[in-house]
Amino acid sequence: MQATGKPHPRARNRLQQHQIGLLSLGQLARADRSVTEPQDQELEQRPRRRIWIHDEDGRHVRTFDASRRIRGWPWYEEGMNESRVLVCDDDDDIRRLVCTLLERTGATVHQAADGREALREFHAWRPELVILDVSMPELDGWAVLERIRDLSDVPVLMLTARGEELERVRGLQGGADDYVVKPFGKQELVARVQALLRRAAKSPQEEEPESYGDAYLTIDYAQRQVTVGERPVQLTPLEFRLLSTLVRHPRQVLSRDQLLELVWGDTFGVGGDQVKLYVGYLRRKLDADAPASVPIETVRGFGYRYMPS
């Protein structure tokens, strides 16, 4: 002790450490011997550190374990780690927001501010998913989507400020896999991206045949080509998956839920009406003059089935 009666700084420091639990002043510690680790029950009784992260939903609170390395932010579903995502939007604020949300989940993100830059990034980097704004300079989202679809079946999610039904239909018919209207919910956007990535990740057990053929149509799976008679049919990736699923289960009735699982891969934000809509698209693509003659039957109250000739 110093003459003033106050503790020496070293002693005061040790007392403070003892108060916060950094030093053990029990009998074993005073004897300069190893201290036995507390039992699990004692550890559970100790207060746990909690880290609060601000988000628009106040319920998103998570206790972090210091011994565990966490990649990505905890309230989003795991499964996007290392996925390559290209974000194309001419609005700097929206583009940075989307990039930040995806990087928090562990994705690797590249960005582009206009259509031409987006295509350059797409060719050079080969992303696993593209988020594409509709209204962009140089090339708009529709032109970029068309060129991407000429080269790849990579999932494309369209972003737009216009939510009219015709605008959505145009995007889906043009080959987009999903459609999100601005302003969008942060968690919903991330969930939709994850659903598209899961859908695109083919299970290793699924071995695709080289081709299929019957009296009505032929399918070249390697080239993604469909022919009805002698006429080639241009299908979007989603329409192609729907047709392939139906022909792989000939004469078998597939419910809307089964088709959602097999074709869409996830039911988040997708309902049975989406299946009905795309079956209609597919029939008109296969035979625009007589869609009712296409051998895709509606089994009322159950689902759909393909009836080969």
What would you say this structure looks like, in words?
The chain has a 5-stranded parallel beta sheet with strand order 4-3-5-6-7, sandwiched between helices. A 4-stranded antiparallel beta sheet has the order 8-9-10-11, covered by helices on one side. The chain has a 3-stranded antiparallel beta sheet with strand order 12-14-13. The protein is an alpha/beta fold and 309 residues long. The chain is 37% helix and 17% strand. Helix 5 packs parallel to helix 6, helix 9 crosses helix 10 and helix 9 crosses helix 11.
Provide a compact summary of the structure.
Helices cover 37% and strands 17% of the residues. It contains 11 helices and 14 strands.
The amount of beta strand, in percent, is 15-25%
Broad shape: elongated
Sequence of strands across the biggest β-sheet: 4-3-5-6-7
Structural class: alpha/beta
- Can you give the mean pLDDT? 76
Q: What level of helicity do the residues show?
A: 25-40%
Radius of gyration: 28 Å
Spans where pLDDT lies below 50 across 5 or more residues: 14-77
The overall strand count is 14
Largest sheet: 5 strands, parallel
Strand-and-helix sequence, N→C?
HHHEEEHEHEHEHEHEEEEHEHHEE
Tally of individual helices: 11
- Intertermini distance: 100 Å
